[in-house]
Amino acid sequence: MKENIKNKFKEALSAILPISIAVAILCFGIAPVSIDVFILFIVGAIMLVAGIALFTLGAEMSMTVIGERIGAYISTHKKIFVSILLIVIIGIIVIMSEPDLSVYANQIHEIPSLLLVLTVAIGSGLLLAIAFFRIKFGMKLKYILMILYAIVFLLVIFCPKEFWAVAFDSGGVTTGAVSVPFIVAIGAGAAAMRSDKNAENDSFGLLAICSVGPVLAVLILGLFYNVTEVSYNLDFVHEIGSSKELWELFSSKIPIYMKEVAMSLLPILILFILFRLFAFKVSKKEMYKIIVGAFYVYVGLVLFSTGTKVGFMPAGSFIGEAVASAPNNWIIIPIGMILGYFMVKAEPAVVVLVRQISDITDGAIPEKLMMFSQEIGIALAIGLSMLRIITGVSILWILIPCYVLAFILSFFTPEIFTAIAFDSGGVASGTMTAVFLIPFSIGVCNIVGGDVLTDAFGIVAVAAAIPVVCIQLVGLLYKYKLRDRKEIFDVHGKEEIIEIDWMWESE
Amino acid sequence: MNNLVMMVSILRRDLSESAISFLNKRGISLTLGRYGRGTATSDIGKIFVPDREKCVLFSTMPYGISKKIMTDLLSDCGHGGVAFTIPIISVGGISVLNYLKGKSNEDEVSNVAIKFENELIIAVANRGYTDNVMTVARAAGARGGTVIHARGTGEEEAERFFGTTVGAEKEMIFIVVESKDKQNVMNAIMEKAGINSDAQTFMFTLPVIDTAK
User: What's the pLDDT at A319?
Assistant: First the structure.
């Protein structure tokens, strides 16, 4: 009983400790920050450990279960039209629930936040339906994605440059801690009902298609919506004079996040209750468990949001500035890579996704392998982004080759890895990216003199693209490794059934 | 000697990799794994934590070495795990038999008569009703169970949807009981969570030669 909870805290600690130590070493060495910022960071890190532990504990008990049940229900509904309608509605609700999205939308002043949230949610909802339909027509995921990304890059040409970053970022922020476990579980639930050989492969790919939705929707919005300049604002600089002020800072923020997280979880719970009333049966005990699980998720996400936004954001920004002011500013490349490498583990959506992948494949794709390829992917992505800030090359020089390579690889990689790779793409860039890496790159930009809007924010788009290539490469290696492991049978002519004689002890 | 058994070991999920490499080292050539979950013992505590996560490993080996392998496996990566062996009655071909035997160089215990004092109840229930089944089973003397999620492919339930076959969602519950307790446990489940209840549990048993904890 307790062992279970202890394990979750241990896992959470091992997720947060590396990034905390890396940041602490930076702070003591080349990137001195004020003691206020450092204390905030430490308190934030402690909140994160508790937050991630509770979140992962609760996600397994509630979100995953709800998603799987709904996925199974929809995929066996006899009227296809009803299933499609349901999936669009569910997609819209789930995406609107994603806390990162509303926070992100509020940071952009030029587009009304409700308009942005709705655009993104409708985009995702419709694409979720396409992802579901794909299974009906037995279309291969890679072809659908190729068409979608071709449209994306076509739109990019016509869309004002200011919208690029917003578009790609929206794709990244929609796949966060709330939507990922839910959407993956819907896919798994739907696939669990099938018994053909592609069922397992098709468990994945919903997220991949779904996260192109926001990009497309925002780019289309950009064609019609006339904005000359899009700007962001980040206000996070807090000065603490005493320990009392530290407490007041956290306690003043907690209620804000309590409300925010409640608003995002409520629709999902309502959705579940509606399904419970009209569609499927759930035993009483399972129901209680889902409620308790949802409560863990709630507390976990509140702690996580507060910890990251109050503790990690200022640290990211100041460290970015401090590192970039060092005499050799190329040093931001390795430092960015190290921070990125350690940060992935602390992203709750990644933790849950990696876990679900291992679950669905019954351990054939182990958690460690997936985590490692995510870490390498993000490290490379951050390294490239930093290089971009120094040199100022256009983001398309990274994105286009990257996706072209990803699609070429998809012809050689086992299908399931292609699906998982594209699923993982947007997931790695979640809350931690938004609250730590973006402020970090803004800090770097401020010193190096890059364009904050196109350089710093593009980090999300790059972080979504590189892992797609990395995970597929891992898939290729995996395929070759498996090829060597064919079982060896020593066959002699025609074989006959062998009956084994057991000596049974007489009663 | 051709007496083969299937060993089923139910271990903590995070130990599955070390268990598989342990079995490989001991010359066991076939181990298939599947994730499942345990059923907690206390009813009140149950809703506050997720179910214990388990891996269920199926491996084949000669009967002669199975006892030793089983106890060694549990002392190495047990931590609350269990293992038991089920006799294999026939094999499809001599090369498969040789493969299933593995390449163990342990000393085999000479062929002794076997008997079964334990049985493995496999109860198949509708998804979401494991708790009903386990509550009843426990009250009748079962100690614990492990659940594997499965989909049914029964002919009536197989329907075409979106061009693919769909089956009903089921849960497979593994319960090892002593043969003398079997009647109680099975009767209780049949009566309170049987085919006429919402759980629609149906079950059968397999002989278990040895068990280890």
Answer: 84
**Cβ neighbours of B38 in A, within 8 Å:** none
* Separation in Å, CA of A70 to nearest CA in chain B: 12
In terms of C-beta density within 10 A (0-12 exposed, 13-18 middle, 19 or more buried), how is residue A243 classed?
exposed
Q: For residue B48, name the pLDDT band (cuts at 50, 70, 90).
A: low
Dist. CA B170–CA B137, nearest whole Å: 18
The answer on pLDDT for B164 being more than 70 is no
User: How far is B72 from chain A, CA to nearest CA, in Å?
Assistant: 23
CA distance A166 to A123: 14
Give the CA angle between residues B40, B42, B46 to the nearest 5°: 65
Find all residues with CB under 8 Å of A81, minimum gap 6, and list them: none
Query: To the nearest whole number, what is the mean pLDDT of chain B?
Result: 81
Residues A152-176: tens digit of each pLDDT: 999 988 888 777 777 887 887 788 8
* Backbone φ and ψ of A203, nearest 5°: -60, -30
Contacts of A318 (CB under 8 A, 6+ apart): A31, A33, A34, A37, A443
Residue B143 CA to residue B151 CA, distance in Å, equals 26
Among the listed residues B179, B189, B173, the one whose alpha carbon sits nearest the alpha carbon of residue B138: B189
Lowest mean pLDDT among A48-57, A87-96, A387-396, B109-118: B109-118
Nearest CA in chain B to A491: B95
Burial of A319 (0-12, 13-18, 19+ CB in 10 A): buried
The span from the CA of A410 to the CA of A403, in Å, is: 10
CA distance B212 to chain A (A): 20
Could A495 and B89 be called an inter-chain contact, meaning their C-beta atoms sit closer than 8 Å?
Answer: no
To the nearest 10 degrees (0 to 180), the angle between helices A35-61 and A63-76 is 40
Mind listing the domains of chain B with CATH numbers?
4-101 (3.30.70.120), 119-208 (3.30.70.120)
Work out the number of other CB atoms within 10 angstroms of the CB of residue B89. 11
Task: Work out the angle at residue A119's Cα, subtended by the Cα atoms of residues A114 and A121, and round it to the nearest 5 degrees.
Answer: 95
**Is residue B53 helix, strand or coil?**
strand
Which is more confident, B53 or A145? A145
The sign of the torsion formed by the CA atoms of B102, A475, A424, A315 equals: positive
Say yes or no: A504 contacts chain B, CB-CB below 8 A.
yes
Query: Which among B94, B99, B169 is the nearest to A192, CB-wise?
Result: B169
In the prediction, which pLDDT does A411 show?
Answer: 93
